[in-house]
Amino acid sequence: MPKRDPYEVLGVARGASAEDIKSAYRRLARRYHPDVNPNDPSAEDHFKEVGEAYSVLSDPQRRARFDQYGTTDETPNDPFQGAGNISDLFEMFFGGNMGTQGRPRRGRDGEDIRADVELTLKEVITGLQKEIQVTRMAECPSCHGTGAEGGAPPETCPTCRGQGMVGSVRNTFLGQVRTSSPCPTCGGSGVKIKNPCHECRGRMVIQETATVAINIPPGVESGATMQIPGQGSDGVGEGRQGDLYVVLTVKDDSRFERRGQTLVTQLEVSFAQAALGDHIRIEGVDETVDVHVAAGTQPGSHITARGMGLPPLHGGRRGDLVVQMQVKVPTKLNDAQTRLIRELAEVSGEPVPKGEDRGLLGGLFGKKK
Protein backbone atom coordinates (compact mmCIF):
# COMPACT_ATOMS: atom_id res chain seq x y z
CA MET A 1 0.00 0.00 0.00
CA PRO A 2 1.18 3.59 -0.43
CA LYS A 3 3.09 5.21 2.44
CA ARG A 4 0.61 8.09 2.59
CA ASP A 5 -3.18 8.10 2.62
CA PRO A 6 -4.16 7.34 -1.03
CA TYR A 7 -6.93 9.95 -0.88
CA GLU A 8 -4.33 12.53 0.18
CA VAL A 9 -1.92 11.45 -2.57
CA LEU A 10 -4.53 11.87 -5.32
CA GLY A 11 -6.06 14.95 -3.68
CA VAL A 12 -9.63 13.62 -3.63
CA ALA A 13 -12.27 13.37 -0.93
CA ARG A 14 -13.11 10.03 0.70
CA GLY A 15 -16.49 10.03 -1.00
CA ALA A 16 -15.00 10.71 -4.45
CA SER A 17 -16.52 8.85 -7.38
CA ALA A 18 -14.58 6.42 -9.56
CA GLU A 19 -14.50 9.06 -12.33
CA ASP A 20 -13.08 11.71 -9.96
CA ILE A 21 -10.37 9.28 -8.84
CA LYS A 22 -9.51 8.34 -12.41
CA SER A 23 -9.33 11.99 -13.54
CA ALA A 24 -7.06 12.87 -10.61
CA TYR A 25 -4.79 9.94 -11.41
CA ARG A 26 -4.51 10.91 -15.08
CA ARG A 27 -3.65 14.48 -14.23
CA LEU A 28 -0.98 13.59 -11.66
CA ALA A 29 0.49 10.69 -13.65
CA ARG A 30 1.14 12.96 -16.61
CA ARG A 31 2.52 15.70 -14.35
CA TYR A 32 5.04 13.43 -12.60
CA HIS A 33 5.95 11.02 -15.43
CA PRO A 34 9.78 10.64 -15.42
CA ASP A 35 10.02 11.27 -19.18
CA VAL A 36 8.29 14.61 -18.69
CA ASN A 37 10.63 15.53 -15.80
CA PRO A 38 14.07 14.23 -16.86
CA ASN A 39 15.88 16.70 -14.57
CA ASP A 40 13.78 16.05 -11.45
CA PRO A 41 14.93 12.92 -9.55
CA SER A 42 11.91 13.12 -7.21
CA ALA A 43 9.40 12.88 -10.09
CA GLU A 44 9.77 9.10 -10.35
CA ASP A 45 8.98 8.66 -6.64
CA HIS A 46 5.88 10.86 -6.99
CA PHE A 47 4.87 8.92 -10.11
CA LYS A 48 5.13 5.59 -8.28
CA GLU A 49 3.24 6.94 -5.26
CA VAL A 50 0.41 8.17 -7.48
CA GLY A 51 0.24 4.77 -9.20
CA GLU A 52 0.11 2.92 -5.85
CA ALA A 53 -2.63 5.20 -4.57
CA TYR A 54 -4.69 4.67 -7.72
CA SER A 55 -4.25 0.89 -7.52
CA VAL A 56 -5.92 1.03 -4.09
CA LEU A 57 -8.77 3.43 -4.82
CA SER A 58 -9.62 2.01 -8.27
CA ASP A 59 -10.22 -1.46 -6.80
CA PRO A 60 -13.57 -1.55 -4.93
CA GLN A 61 -12.43 -4.33 -2.59
CA ARG A 62 -9.09 -2.72 -1.69
CA ARG A 63 -10.73 0.66 -1.28
CA ALA A 64 -13.39 -0.76 1.03
CA ARG A 65 -10.72 -2.55 3.07
CA PHE A 66 -8.71 0.67 3.39
CA ASP A 67 -11.81 2.66 4.39
CA GLN A 68 -12.63 0.10 7.07
CA TYR A 69 -9.18 -0.84 8.42
CA GLY A 70 -6.87 1.90 7.19
CA THR A 71 -4.79 -0.73 5.35
CA THR A 72 -5.03 -2.91 2.26
CA ASP A 73 -3.06 -5.82 3.70
CA GLU A 74 -4.84 -9.15 3.77
CA THR A 75 -5.72 -10.42 7.26
CA PRO A 76 -3.71 -13.53 8.25
CA ASN A 77 -6.82 -15.52 9.13
CA ASP A 78 -8.71 -14.72 5.97
CA PRO A 79 -9.99 -18.13 4.79
CA PHE A 80 -10.32 -16.82 1.22
CA GLN A 81 -6.74 -15.54 0.99
CA GLY A 82 -5.15 -17.00 -2.14
CA ALA A 83 -8.50 -17.56 -3.84
CA GLY A 84 -7.26 -15.28 -6.59
CA ASN A 85 -4.80 -17.97 -7.64
CA ILE A 86 -7.69 -20.42 -8.19
CA SER A 87 -9.54 -17.75 -10.13
CA ASP A 88 -6.49 -17.12 -12.29
CA LEU A 89 -6.29 -20.85 -13.03
CA PHE A 90 -9.94 -20.99 -14.12
CA GLU A 91 -9.53 -17.85 -16.19
CA MET A 92 -6.49 -19.30 -17.91
CA PHE A 93 -8.49 -22.37 -19.00
CA PHE A 94 -11.97 -20.94 -19.51
CA GLY A 95 -11.59 -17.14 -19.86
CA GLY A 96 -13.76 -14.53 -18.18
CA ASN A 97 -13.93 -13.81 -14.44
CA MET A 98 -15.13 -15.82 -11.47
CA GLY A 99 -17.38 -14.34 -8.86
CA THR A 100 -14.69 -14.54 -6.18
CA GLN A 101 -12.81 -11.76 -7.95
CA GLY A 102 -15.49 -9.19 -7.20
CA ARG A 103 -17.07 -6.79 -9.62
CA PRO A 104 -15.08 -6.54 -12.85
CA ARG A 105 -13.93 -3.17 -14.12
CA ARG A 106 -16.60 -1.48 -16.19
CA GLY A 107 -15.34 0.18 -19.32
CA ARG A 108 -12.75 -0.28 -22.02
CA ASP A 109 -9.01 0.08 -21.79
CA GLY A 110 -7.39 2.76 -23.92
CA GLU A 111 -5.51 1.62 -27.01
CA ASP A 112 -1.73 1.58 -27.21
CA ILE A 113 -0.30 3.95 -29.81
CA ARG A 114 2.95 4.06 -31.79
CA ALA A 115 5.31 6.84 -32.76
CA ASP A 116 8.43 6.62 -34.95
CA VAL A 117 11.54 8.67 -34.17
CA GLU A 118 14.65 8.94 -36.35
CA LEU A 119 18.04 9.94 -34.95
CA THR A 120 21.61 10.32 -36.20
CA LEU A 121 24.76 8.46 -35.17
CA LYS A 122 25.89 11.57 -33.30
CA GLU A 123 22.63 11.54 -31.33
CA VAL A 124 23.25 7.86 -30.54
CA ILE A 125 26.44 9.00 -28.75
CA THR A 126 24.81 11.76 -26.68
CA GLY A 127 21.25 10.51 -26.28
CA LEU A 128 18.32 12.76 -27.10
CA GLN A 129 15.57 14.63 -25.29
CA LYS A 130 12.77 15.30 -27.73
CA GLU A 131 9.15 16.39 -27.84
CA ILE A 132 7.03 14.41 -30.29
CA GLN A 133 3.49 14.86 -31.55
CA VAL A 134 1.12 11.92 -31.13
CA THR A 135 -2.49 11.39 -32.13
CA ARG A 136 -4.58 9.59 -29.53
CA MET A 137 -8.08 9.33 -28.10
CA ALA A 138 -8.63 11.51 -25.05
CA GLU A 139 -11.47 12.01 -22.58
CA CYS A 140 -14.08 14.29 -24.11
CA PRO A 141 -13.81 17.73 -22.45
CA SER A 142 -17.44 18.56 -23.17
CA CYS A 143 -19.01 15.65 -21.25
CA HIS A 144 -15.96 14.79 -19.09
CA GLY A 145 -15.99 11.25 -20.40
CA THR A 146 -19.59 10.38 -19.49
CA GLY A 147 -20.74 10.35 -23.12
CA ALA A 148 -23.94 12.23 -22.19
CA GLU A 149 -24.70 15.82 -23.16
CA GLY A 150 -23.55 18.31 -20.56
CA GLY A 151 -21.77 15.62 -18.56
CA ALA A 152 -25.02 14.21 -17.24
CA PRO A 153 -24.70 10.78 -15.62
CA PRO A 154 -25.67 8.02 -18.06
CA GLU A 155 -28.30 5.41 -17.29
CA THR A 156 -27.54 1.89 -16.19
CA CYS A 157 -27.40 -0.64 -19.02
CA PRO A 158 -30.55 -2.82 -18.85
CA THR A 159 -28.76 -5.92 -20.18
CA CYS A 160 -25.90 -6.18 -17.69
CA ARG A 161 -27.53 -3.94 -15.04
CA GLY A 162 -24.48 -1.76 -14.83
CA GLN A 163 -21.95 -4.55 -14.35
CA GLY A 164 -20.44 -4.25 -17.80
CA MET A 165 -20.22 -8.03 -18.00
CA VAL A 166 -22.71 -10.80 -18.70
CA GLY A 167 -22.37 -14.32 -17.36
CA SER A 168 -22.72 -17.67 -19.03
CA VAL A 169 -22.41 -21.30 -17.98
CA ARG A 170 -20.04 -23.61 -19.83
CA ASN A 171 -19.80 -27.38 -19.57
CA THR A 172 -16.23 -28.57 -19.06
CA PHE A 173 -14.50 -31.74 -17.93
CA LEU A 174 -14.64 -30.28 -14.41
CA GLY A 175 -18.38 -29.75 -14.65
CA GLN A 176 -20.28 -26.53 -15.20
CA VAL A 177 -18.18 -23.38 -14.93
CA ARG A 178 -19.63 -19.89 -14.89
CA THR A 179 -17.70 -17.34 -16.94
CA SER A 180 -18.29 -13.73 -17.89
CA SER A 181 -17.64 -11.58 -20.95
CA PRO A 182 -18.17 -7.91 -21.92
CA CYS A 183 -21.81 -6.95 -22.30
CA PRO A 184 -22.80 -6.88 -26.00
CA THR A 185 -25.24 -4.00 -25.43
CA CYS A 186 -22.94 -1.47 -23.76
CA GLY A 187 -19.57 -2.88 -24.82
CA GLY A 188 -18.52 -3.28 -21.20
CA SER A 189 -19.17 0.30 -20.09
CA GLY A 190 -22.19 -0.70 -17.96
CA VAL A 191 -24.18 2.37 -19.04
CA LYS A 192 -26.70 3.43 -21.64
CA ILE A 193 -26.69 6.95 -23.08
CA LYS A 194 -30.03 8.42 -24.17
CA ASN A 195 -28.82 11.94 -25.00
CA PRO A 196 -25.32 11.57 -26.49
CA CYS A 197 -22.77 14.36 -26.16
CA HIS A 198 -22.73 16.57 -29.27
CA GLU A 199 -18.92 16.58 -29.41
CA CYS A 200 -18.00 12.92 -28.92
CA ARG A 201 -21.42 11.55 -30.00
CA GLY A 202 -21.59 9.34 -26.96
CA ARG A 203 -18.21 7.72 -27.51
CA MET A 204 -16.80 9.40 -24.36
CA VAL A 205 -13.48 10.12 -26.08
CA ILE A 206 -12.35 12.35 -28.94
CA GLN A 207 -9.22 12.43 -31.07
CA GLU A 208 -6.49 14.83 -29.96
CA THR A 209 -2.96 15.73 -30.95
CA ALA A 210 -0.71 15.87 -27.91
CA THR A 211 2.94 16.68 -27.23
CA VAL A 212 4.89 14.05 -25.32
CA ALA A 213 8.44 14.54 -24.02
CA ILE A 214 10.68 11.50 -24.42
CA ASN A 215 14.21 10.82 -23.23
CA ILE A 216 16.18 8.55 -25.59
CA PRO A 217 19.29 7.10 -23.90
CA PRO A 218 22.70 6.86 -25.61
CA GLY A 219 23.63 3.67 -27.43
CA VAL A 220 20.27 2.73 -28.97
CA GLU A 221 20.04 0.73 -32.19
CA SER A 222 17.58 0.78 -35.06
CA GLY A 223 14.43 -1.16 -34.23
CA ALA A 224 14.66 -0.53 -30.49
CA THR A 225 11.29 0.26 -28.89
CA MET A 226 10.62 2.42 -25.85
CA GLN A 227 7.43 1.90 -23.83
CA ILE A 228 6.02 5.00 -22.11
CA PRO A 229 3.18 3.96 -19.75
CA GLY A 230 -0.03 5.98 -19.64
CA GLN A 231 0.73 8.11 -22.71
CA GLY A 232 -1.55 6.20 -25.08
CA SER A 233 -5.29 6.69 -25.54
CA ASP A 234 -7.57 7.27 -22.57
CA GLY A 235 -9.74 4.40 -21.42
CA VAL A 236 -13.52 4.54 -21.28
CA GLY A 237 -15.26 4.30 -17.92
CA GLU A 238 -12.94 2.47 -15.53
CA GLY A 239 -10.66 1.34 -18.35
CA ARG A 240 -6.93 1.90 -18.01
CA GLN A 241 -4.92 4.28 -20.14
CA GLY A 242 -3.00 2.82 -23.03
CA ASP A 243 0.76 3.09 -23.49
CA LEU A 244 2.91 4.85 -26.06
CA TYR A 245 5.47 2.76 -27.96
CA VAL A 246 8.28 4.74 -29.58
CA VAL A 247 10.09 2.85 -32.35
CA LEU A 248 13.60 4.18 -33.01
CA THR A 249 15.44 4.28 -36.34
CA VAL A 250 19.10 5.32 -36.66
CA LYS A 251 19.82 7.08 -39.96
CA ASP A 252 22.41 5.51 -42.25
CA ASP A 253 25.68 7.44 -42.53
CA SER A 254 27.56 6.68 -45.75
CA ARG A 255 30.90 7.33 -44.00
CA PHE A 256 30.51 4.52 -41.48
CA GLU A 257 29.40 0.92 -41.14
CA ARG A 258 28.00 0.11 -37.71
CA ARG A 259 28.85 -3.18 -36.03
CA GLY A 260 27.28 -2.88 -32.59
CA GLN A 261 29.41 -0.35 -30.72
CA THR A 262 32.17 -0.47 -33.36
CA LEU A 263 32.25 1.84 -36.38
CA VAL A 264 34.18 0.99 -39.56
CA THR A 265 35.28 3.58 -42.11
CA GLN A 266 37.47 3.54 -45.25
CA LEU A 267 40.54 5.75 -45.75
CA GLU A 268 42.13 6.11 -49.19
CA VAL A 269 45.85 6.89 -49.18
CA SER A 270 48.33 7.31 -52.02
CA PHE A 271 51.14 4.88 -52.81
CA ALA A 272 53.60 7.44 -51.44
CA GLN A 273 51.69 7.83 -48.16
CA ALA A 274 51.44 4.08 -47.72
CA ALA A 275 55.14 3.59 -48.48
CA LEU A 276 56.58 6.52 -46.51
CA GLY A 277 53.95 6.94 -43.80
CA ASP A 278 51.90 10.03 -42.95
CA HIS A 279 49.67 11.72 -40.38
CA ILE A 280 46.12 12.27 -41.61
CA ARG A 281 43.17 13.93 -39.88
CA ILE A 282 39.73 12.47 -40.64
CA GLU A 283 36.21 13.30 -39.45
CA GLY A 284 34.79 10.96 -36.84
CA VAL A 285 31.15 10.90 -35.73
CA ASP A 286 31.44 13.73 -33.22
CA GLU A 287 35.04 15.01 -33.56
CA THR A 288 38.12 14.81 -35.75
CA VAL A 289 40.47 11.83 -35.41
CA ASP A 290 44.24 11.86 -35.99
CA VAL A 291 45.30 8.75 -37.92
CA HIS A 292 48.97 7.69 -38.04
CA VAL A 293 49.72 5.84 -41.27
CA ALA A 294 52.84 3.78 -40.65
CA ALA A 295 55.51 3.47 -43.34
CA GLY A 296 54.94 0.36 -45.38
CA THR A 297 51.18 0.22 -44.75
CA GLN A 298 49.64 -2.54 -46.84
CA PRO A 299 46.28 -2.40 -48.67
CA GLY A 300 43.51 -3.87 -46.50
CA SER A 301 45.30 -3.24 -43.21
CA HIS A 302 43.49 -1.26 -40.54
CA ILE A 303 44.11 1.23 -37.77
CA THR A 304 41.99 1.31 -34.59
CA ALA A 305 41.03 4.57 -32.88
CA ARG A 306 40.11 3.55 -29.35
CA GLY A 307 36.94 4.99 -27.81
CA MET A 308 35.81 6.75 -30.97
CA GLY A 309 32.89 4.42 -31.71
CA LEU A 310 29.46 4.26 -30.06
CA PRO A 311 28.55 3.82 -26.37
CA PRO A 312 26.77 0.77 -24.92
CA LEU A 313 23.09 1.16 -24.15
CA HIS A 314 23.42 1.04 -20.36
CA GLY A 315 26.51 3.22 -20.07
CA GLY A 316 30.23 2.48 -20.17
CA ARG A 317 33.22 2.90 -22.44
CA ARG A 318 32.59 3.76 -26.07
CA GLY A 319 33.47 1.29 -28.79
CA ASP A 320 36.23 1.78 -31.33
CA LEU A 321 36.55 3.34 -34.78
CA VAL A 322 38.26 0.96 -37.22
CA VAL A 323 39.93 2.71 -40.18
CA GLN A 324 40.50 0.36 -43.12
CA MET A 325 43.30 1.42 -45.47
CA GLN A 326 42.84 1.53 -49.23
CA VAL A 327 45.92 2.31 -51.33
CA LYS A 328 45.05 4.35 -54.39
CA VAL A 329 46.81 3.24 -57.59
CA PRO A 330 47.06 6.05 -60.19
CA THR A 331 45.22 5.33 -63.42
CA LYS A 332 47.27 7.70 -65.60
CA LEU A 333 51.01 8.42 -65.47
CA ASN A 334 53.10 10.95 -67.36
CA ASP A 335 56.55 10.14 -68.70
CA ALA A 336 58.35 11.44 -65.63
CA GLN A 337 56.21 9.38 -63.27
CA THR A 338 56.69 6.27 -65.41
CA ARG A 339 60.48 6.72 -65.44
CA LEU A 340 60.63 7.15 -61.65
CA ILE A 341 58.57 4.04 -61.00
CA ARG A 342 60.81 2.00 -63.27
CA GLU A 343 63.87 3.34 -61.48
CA LEU A 344 62.26 2.39 -58.14
CA ALA A 345 61.75 -1.14 -59.40
CA GLU A 346 65.37 -1.34 -60.55
CA VAL A 347 66.89 -0.16 -57.25
CA SER A 348 64.54 -2.42 -55.33
CA GLY A 349 65.71 -5.44 -57.28
CA GLU A 350 62.23 -6.04 -58.66
CA PRO A 351 61.37 -6.96 -62.27
CA VAL A 352 61.01 -3.78 -64.25
CA PRO A 353 57.50 -3.73 -65.73
CA LYS A 354 57.32 -3.23 -69.48
CA GLY A 355 54.09 -1.27 -69.22
CA GLU A 356 51.62 -0.82 -72.03
CA ASP A 357 52.82 -0.22 -75.58
CA ARG A 358 51.25 3.08 -76.58
CA GLY A 359 52.33 2.78 -80.24
CA LEU A 360 49.97 2.19 -83.16
CA LEU A 361 50.60 -1.57 -83.44
CA GLY A 362 50.58 -2.03 -79.70
CA GLY A 363 47.24 -0.21 -79.47
CA LEU A 364 45.72 -2.35 -82.19
CA PHE A 365 46.94 -5.68 -80.87
CA GLY A 366 46.18 -4.65 -77.32
CA LYS A 367 42.46 -4.76 -78.13
CA LYS A 368 42.57 -8.47 -78.97
CA LYS A 369 41.46 -10.97 -76.35
A few lines on this structure:
By secondary structure, this protein is an alpha+beta fold. The protein has helices spanning 6-10, 18-32, 42-57, 60-69, 83-94, 121-126, 271-276, 335-347, 360-365; strands at residues 107-108, 113-119, 128-139, 155-156, 165-172, 175-182, 191-192, 205-216, 225-228, 236-237, 244-250, 257-259, 262-270, 278-283, 288-293, 302-305, 321-328. β14 (278-283) and β15 form a beta hairpin.
Whole-number mean pLDDT? 81
Report the order of strands and helices. Answer: HHHHHEEHEEEEEEEEEEEHEEEEHH
Q: Span between N and C termini?
A: 88 Å
The total strand number stands at: 17
> Globular, elongated, flat, extended or rod-shaped: what is the shape?
elongated
Report the total helices.
9
Classified by CATH, the class of the domain at 257-359 is Mainly Beta
CATH superfamily of the domain at 257-359, please?
Urease metallochaperone UreE, N-terminal domain
Adjacency order of strands in the biggest sheet: 12-13-17-16
Instruction: Tell me the radius of gyration.
Output: 35 Å
Q: Percent of residues in beta strands? A: 25-35%
- Low-confidence segments, given as residue ranges, are 74-102, 359-365
Helix content: 10-25%
CATH topology of the domain at 257-359: HSP40/DNAj peptide-binding domain
Q: Report the major sheet.
A: 4 strands, mixed
> What is the level-2 CATH architecture name of the domain at 257-359?
Sandwich
Q: Given the helix and strand composition, which structural class is it? A: alpha+beta
Explain how this protein is built:
The chain is an alpha+beta fold and 369 residues long. Among the domains are: 70 residues, DnaJ domain (Helix Hairpins); 103 residues, HSP40/DNAj peptide-binding domain, CATH 2.60.260. The protein contains nine helices and 17 strands. Strand 12 and strand 13 form a beta hairpin. The longest helix has 16 residues. The radius of gyration is 35 Å and the shape is elongated.
